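1st attempt posting a full record on here, be nice pls
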Amino acid sequence: MWVERNTFILCFAAQWAHEKKVRIHALPDYKRYKKDRYDDKPLCKELARYLDEADFVAAHNGDRFDVPLIMGRLWINDIPEPSPFGQLDTYKMSKRFKLDSHKLDNIVRQKQLGKKLANTGGALWRACGEGDPKAWENMTLYCRHDTELLVETYHALASWKKNHPAMHDSGCHVCGSHNLHRRGRVRQTPKFQFNCRDCGHWFTAKP
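the predicted structure (as tokens):
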């Protein structure tokens, strides 16, 4: 094995649940990039602000990859840990089903939600590290599109997730609809089963 440089973050994309805009942040956006193309501290500070403000964060394989990697970079860069947030991992959510593959590209293709953008793999990442403007353009497009696919995937899976955290003060835990069908009482509890007639989610709550 030959390691040229320790891991660092090139860019990230994020979309707030109440917005349609996908926000892109990449190393060249920051002044320190001109002096050091591998300095991701300003980028990580930006990312930490998103996490600190979020109640829940959705990512594909985020529990095993994205979140631990991000936390590692925050630690290395002496950035304080964000306030606690919930995690919604669409990879784990898809594991409820027996699929040919649980990779994001396979899921969106099977559900006809789209497909990931083609890229040159490691060569693209290396070219960004070398400061190639065209590579950065392709990388940010790829990152944006992946986030758009993630949003579509989450919405396709959310109503099927058992024990989905309540995302609204009342109504359906997933979509907030009050068009609910109350079913039987959950045995030996004061709660009932509810089925959302809009998104189809099943959940338990007090009437």
